[in-house]
Amino acid sequence: MGLRNVVYGVYERRLAFALERAGSPLPRHVGVILDGNRRWARATGRQDVNYGHQAGADKIADLLEWCDQAGVELVTLWLLSTDNLSRPAAELDPLLRIIEAVVTELARPLNRWTLNIVGALDLLPDATARLLKEAAAGTAGRPGVEVNVAIGYGGRREIADAVRSMLQAHAATGATLEEVAEFLDVEHIAEHLYTRGQPDPDLVIRTSGEQRLGGFLLWQSAHSEFYFCEAYWPDFRRVDFLRALRAYAARQRRFGT
Fold first, then answer.
1. In whole angstroms, what is the distance from residue 244 CA to residue 91 CA?
2. What whole-number distance in Å separates Cα of residue 49 and Cα of residue 234?
3. 84 is catalytic
4. What is the predicted pLDDT for the residue at 107?
């Protein structure tokens, strides 16, 4: 095990150096689907899947450090989907406590990251939504990577909420439905997304070997590059992150053409 760690350490340093020396194009915005926590717990012999959720939560700060080092400006982390909210309370409640704790930890003054909570927060328990929003509010303007923490998030729900918000905004000005339909376009809807004002993700990473988006950033990822990693999220290493950056740098982005 010691020799393996040494070999990986050497490989990791060479990979980082090669990316830096090549001046490779790097993603400005990286989206990450933190998948495989429960399967990791079972694979390591734990009966309680919350052990996997906690191990996954403990990995997040490492990822943000790697993003800071690489010069990534914005990261979107999918911690909890709208589908997850239908899980039994015996599973959902401990997961919410873990999420509250990790957001509180990331928001500590010693950390460099600006946090934004994105998702349908009205679907969360009031106490959870309030804690998350208050923790994120205290991080504004920090110098490190900006972090969207997607909780109670689903891409279809986000698009529906964006259209609803847009219609409500124009209805408040007295516009009729026919008038709204006249100028409705992609830009108008984008202005009401949870991530409005932010660049779309250049790279989306999903761990655990699953090769699908599952509803993550459906609107924003139209021109994203995708990288699927076999490792479960708690096992995700810096070398895996660097491999994702290398794969991104090697691609010729066509933006739908």
1. 32
2. 12
3. yes
4. 98
**DSSP-assigned states of every residue in the chain:** -HHHHHHHHHHHHHHHHHHHHHT----SEEEEE---HHHHHHHTT-S-THHHHHHHHHHHHHHHHHHHHHT--EEEEEEEETGGGGS-HHHHHHHHHHHHHHHHHHTSTTS--EEEEES-GGGS-HHHHHHHHHHHHTTTT-SS-EEEEEEEE-HHHHHHHHHHHHHHHHHTTT--HHHHHHH--HHHHHTTSTTTTSPPPSEEEE-TT--S-TTTTTTTTTT-EEEE-SS-GGG--HHHHHHHHHHHHHS---TT-
β-pair type (74-81, 29-33): parallel
Q: Which of 68, 84, 93, 161 is catalytic?
A: 84
The yes-or-no answer on residue 50 being catalytic is: no
Q: pLDDT tens for residues 116-156?
A: 999 999 999 999 999 999 999 999 999 999 999 999 999 99
27-250 CATH pick, 3.40.190.10, 3.30.365.10, 3.40.1180.10, 3.40.50.2000: 3.40.1180.10
| pLDDT tens, position by position, 2-42 | 777 766 777 888 877 778 776 778 999 999 999 999 999 99
Q: Please report the pLDDT score of residue 1 as a whole number.
A: 58
Catalytic residue among 35, 200, 202, 235: 35
